[in-house]
Each structure stands twice: as C-alpha cells, then as structure tokens.
Amino acid sequence: MYDIIIIGAGVSGIFTALSLAETTKKVLLLEAGPNLQERKNEHTFDGFGGLGISEGKYNYSSEFGGNLVEKIGLEQTKISLKQVRKLLEKFGGEESLIYQTNPPALQVQDFHFIKNTTQHLGRKLSKEVYQNFFDYLKTKITIQTDQKVDQISPFENIYQVKTQENTIFYGKKIVVAVGQANHFLTQVRKTLHLTAENTRIDLGLRLEMPQQQWKKLLGNQQEIKFTYKNFYSHCMNKSGRVISQEQKGFLRPDGQNFRENGASENLNFSLFHPFYFENEKQANLSIQHLFSLFNKNGKIIGQRLSELDSTFPATTNVEATLPYQPHSLKKVVPQKIIQGTLACLKNLENLLGEKISGNTVLYACDAKFYPTAVQTNAHFESSAKNIYFTGDCSGISWSLSHAAAAGLYLGEFLAK
Description:
Layout (H helix, E strand, L loop, with lengths): L1 E6 L3 H10 L6 E4 L26 E3 L8 H5 L1 H20 L3 E5 L9 E4 L1 E5 L1 H16 L4 E3 L4 E7 L2 E6 L4 E9 L6 H9 L7 E12 L4 H4 L6 E4 L2 E8 L2 E7 L2 E7 L1 H4 L4 E12 L2 H15 E2 L2 E6 H4 L16 E2 L8 H18 L8 E9 L17 E3 L10 H15 L2
Parallel strand pairs: 1-2, 1-10, 2-7, 10-21, 18-19
Antiparallel strand pairs: 3-6, 4-6, 5-12, 8-9, 9-10, 11-16, 11-20, 12-13, 13-16, 14-15, 17-18, 18-20
Helix pairs in contact: 1-11, 3-4, 3-11
C-alpha cells in the first residue's frame, strides 16, 4: 500500500516526486519505458526523464508554456519556476547556458515580444541531471521502470493500479503524469467518468535562415520569443542546426543547440499555429494523414522560401543543416500555416531591417502534441476524488519549465 502512486516519470512526475522525497509519505513512481541508461533512440520520449532529456530548454516566463497562471496564480507560478531552476542547478545543471531575452525597442503591429530567461541544458547535460535525479530519488522512494499501467480502478476507499503484465499496486492517492496522449489516458477518463475537453495539436514550419539577418533584432542575445497574431515562435537556435526527430512514429524537424554538434552560420526556429479537434480520434486521423504527406522516403520535406513566394529574393546563401526531400509545401501544408508564415516573415522584415533571404529553408512540419485536457480544480484534482493530473496530460502545461513547476506545486500540496 502506497500513500501516493505517481504514474509517469517524465518531467512533471519526477518533480512531483522531488517535492515528496523528504516527507514521510510512501511513494511509488511508475514509468512505462526503460530507465535512463537503457533509453535508446527509439525511446526518445519514453523512459525515465521523458522529454527532459531532449534539448533541455527551460523558459522561466509566466507568459507562455501553458495556463499555469490561470490554475495557481501569477505569484505562485513565479515561485515554482524559481524552484525548478534551483533544483536543476543543484543536481548538476550549473554549467547550462543561461540567457535573457529582451523585447526589442522597435515594435511592429501584430507582434508581441516576450521577456524571458532561458536555461538551456542541451541533451548531454540534461541526461546527467536526470541521472542525478534518479540516483537521489531511488534512495527516497520506490521507482519501477518498464511498468506500463493499463488501468486505474476504485478499490474500497483506495485505488487499484494494474499494469499490462497484471502487476497490481494499491494507492491512497494517484498522480497521473504521463505526458503525451495515449490509450491509457482515454481508458482512465472512461473508467472514472472524467470530463474531457478539446484536443489540441500545434503545427508549423521550422525555418532555417542566415543568423546574420537577425543581428539588428537579436544583438548578442541567443534567442527571442514572439507571437504574431495566432502564431508563436518556438525553440530558436542561433548558430544551431536542424535535426530530424521521431515522435509518435512521425519525423519532425527539431532545433539543436550549437554546443551539441558544432556551430553553423544559420539560425532556426519553428512558427506554430494551434489546431483544435473535438476528440483524440479526430486529431489522430488528421495528423496521421498530414504526416504521411510530410514524411517522404524516410526524410522530412522542405522547400526554399523563394520557391514558395518569389517576392523573397534568393540572396544570402543558406546551407541546409538537415537533408530534406524537396517538395511543394503549398500542396500538402494547411493553407492557414502557409499564409500566416509568409505574412509573418514579410512583417518581420521591418524589424530585421532587410529582406529575408529567399534561400531560407522551410521544413514541414514541426508539431507539438497535447493530451486531451481533463477538468481539474486549483490543486489538479479531478472530479474523481484523490486522482490528480499534472504536467502535459493535465492540459495545463506544455513546456519543460511549466510541467516541472506544476509537478513541484502538486507535490508540495500532497506533502501536507
């Protein structure tokens, strides 16, 4: 019998456990994937650490990364975000790249620039930090990996947690922190009669262009974050590279920090637009169809900007850092994304002070997947008593920092 069972050892689940580690609570942390040492390429998002061992970008702004402010308030969000940074540094992240993003003095209509502090660990340091988390937690709580939970069922006044291997655990309180949408979440909602909201998926092109063009706007900054109407920038990498990342069986273009595999002359970032679906089935069907068009011959498709819109002159050369399959993006990418991206770039020229090179490479498509949100109260408790949802699967957070902050906040509440 456990006081608390945490299902999912991703970012939010781990930070929930960290909040409970020094208490007298008997805690079990279950993870469907392998431990950190056994994670391989095919386990990029599965296993201890979850997305925490990706590029490791923690953005400490309350303005983006989820709706945590609406859930726990602005001041508590700021406090929890500070605690996340302290823990990352305490467990080995002192050498991470930390930089400030400041809005430019010049403002252009329809653009909003966000002031933010970023702590960028990179993949190598992220693995070291999360290994330190594991080594610490295993001395305080029980951790079991390769335990894929299949069902949560009420059992007298507690809950029964059953895995696919028919192993059964009992807990007084259950924290669901499984991250991405999957069959298990759907099953839990049905079994416990929980109210679900719409399913969200963000889609957008990843752009790779000469970093020199951003000198006026960036200065010595590593990154700048902005929104343009219903679009938002994500994961900007100055001097970085574009890599192919597999997620949910799809290939998507991702940004890589220059410290990982050497610097380039380019800058890359994604420009996302949110799409909403009535349910997970509808969302999955749509995304499967789109990625069957985006992924060709084992490669991500791409196109030069001047080929997409001839008003952008093919001036400064751009050497693509990711081999791609040339393809007409207008034939396969939703027009809302094409039109919005082109409009954003044309307006962005006013800030950059020059024409954007038509040799800019547009990769299709980057994506952010969100589980269907479950309705919860201010402490992440669902309508099923003592069942809590935190991190991305709550629908509240969709960034590393906010997922971690949500886990810390919930863990502190459960520790009382």
